[in-house]
């Protein structure tokens, strides 16, 4: 209990300092179970979020027509090599309606991590189930499958060292 409380306080402190420095706000949320999904990948297979239980996941919603999303993707691409060995899995879910534009953006933005395409039907949409109505939207999911931070990608892109500290604390839980 004390260890979890200390870890939460450390994460809150890192998030607060980062928000002061960059004007973005990451929000610690009351942990809740990450809603599972099954979506097609850019490689042609289908993936479940639950396939990644036991790992820390940065879940990122984006679209090829969203300029802030594209800027964030490029920042993530530059940092990806630093984090791929840190027990972090990045999963991006595109809200594109055109598979061609989606795949072109993946190549142009050099997105080497897992890429999934959401359903175009809003009633079946993963973004709707995750309340990701404004793009980009991102969530940090701990290894137990609990969502713990919203707008988490800003922390990774704006303070990579702070993000590494958070990952180390999550790994020690």
From TrEMBL:
Annotated compartments: Cell envelope
A molecular-function term among this protein's GO annotations: antioxidant activity
Chief place of localization: other
Gene3D superfamilies with a match to the protein in the record: Glutaredoxin (3.40.30.10)
A Pfam family matched in the record: AhpC-TSA
InterPro entries, A to Z: AhpC/TSA, Thioredoxin-like_sf, Thioredoxin_CS, Thioredoxin_domain, Thioredoxin_ResA/DsbE_sf
Any one GO BP annotation for this protein: cytochrome complex assembly
SUPFAM superfamilies tied to this protein: Thioredoxin-like
Signal peptide stretch: 1-25
Keywords in alphabetical order: Cytochrome c-type biogenesis, Disulfide bond, Redox-active center, Signal
Protein's name according to its UniProt entry: Thioredoxin domain-containing protein
Species, as recorded: Niabella ginsenosidivorans
The organism's taxonomic lineage, starting at the top: Bacteria, Pseudomonadati, Bacteroidota, Chitinophagia, Chitinophagales
